[in-house]
């Protein structure tokens, strides 16, 4: 529908329903014409004007899934502008938190008349006001990359500056594993989902009394798997990464559920419904070391006006500190030029996979979302492998394959192929509604070291044995 016809529809609606608002018209129009970008675009702008950024993003995202037409390009620009605005607001919040922490430290070390001492034991009245911790604090480990051209003395000095300045809010000793520079990753910033195969050193630091408890620097990058300092740190890191991945997966699924349904589920088990409502295959269970049967879920703390930020309180990260770089909703980024797919949380790479794509540019470029998740999708000769995720209703899906040799090539009719083990992991992470961003823009192929596999067992309720799929394999 062109712009003139849309305005005529709007005028007719208001003449028939003079008491209804523009918002009512835009909602009615998108119900009547769900494939028209122009309606979703105006609905998104109206939501934005009303101070409802999350609802605005959801509407503009629908516009990007509609057929190209009037206001399609405007919808893309408005969507990107809102995303940039949200990231800028998040950055300002992080800066305020860091400044507040630094001010607190300043008050401790400068204003305080005496040396830093252990806090006094809580009185009975104070104890009554503070809730006890729900999980025992676990050893915290960070991984940071450093420039490749540092001398040993420079390296030790800069890592010491990092531990002294980067985490002022921590109160328990923690370890930092130092790795060589990782292409495409920021320096001196925690790499939350990186497995440190090659290591330069390790330092254990106490942030309260500002002392180095232990450190070791290696003459050259290596694995050093049996090193007595490094070995327990690697184990602790793997445990922390698993819990962080659990929480990220739950937060993303809840956020996408809210985007699609306008409310949070009554309990977490509703996320693991049968197809087509299978946001997740399973609800992740905490490791035994946390001493919990299930992760905390507090939907009463949810605030629609700050949907993603408040989900941090709805499903708190227990046993470990919140990451210095805050978790963000999951997105799937496809680089067609390098045959690489990355699962992202804001600027953090969660996983990186090689993929096969469509020949002759047949894999679509643009913004999409996961529409369906299918366990063991049926197709002739098991061509779709063990999992499938539809991201465009006209037959495009991310799926496994019975031809693993095709990964890394452009051979399909448009679908995205993955190794079966990789697609099972991606299927576990992402929920319905997770964004897929595909681009054919040139980009360098950057290496990444994925952590241990994260797989939630898929259920028979996620299968569709009555359907034979004809995706663009």
Automatic annotation (TrEMBL):
Residue spans of the TPR repeats: 37-70
InterPro entries tied to this protein: LD-transpeptidase (IPR050979), LD_TPept_cat_dom (IPR005490), TPR-like_helical_dom_sf (IPR011990), TPR_rpt (IPR019734), Transpep_catalytic_dom (IPR038063)
Entry coiled-coil feature ranges: none
Pfam families tied to this protein: YkuD (PF03734)
Gene Ontology molecular function: glycosyltransferase activity; peptidoglycan L,D-transpeptidase activity
Xref: CDD domains: YkuD_like
PROSITE patterns found in the cross-reference section: LD_TPASE, TPR
Location of the active site: 399 (proton donor/acceptor), 415 (nucleophile)
Gene Ontology biological process: cell wall organization; peptidoglycan-protein cross-linking; regulation of cell shape
GO cellular component, one term: extracellular region
Domain L,D-TPase catalytic as annotated: residue spans: 330-439
Record bears the keyword Cell wall biogenesis/degradation: yes
Keywords linked to the UniProt accession: Cell shape, Cell wall biogenesis/degradation, Glycosyltransferase, Hydrolase, Peptidoglycan synthesis, TPR repeat, Transferase
Pathway noted in the entry: Cell wall biogenesis; peptidoglycan biosynthesis
PANTHER family: L,D-TRANSPEPTIDASE, L,D-TRANSPEPTIDASE ERFK_SRFK-RELATED
Family: Belongs to the YkuD family.
UniProt name for this protein: L,D-transpeptidase catalytic domain
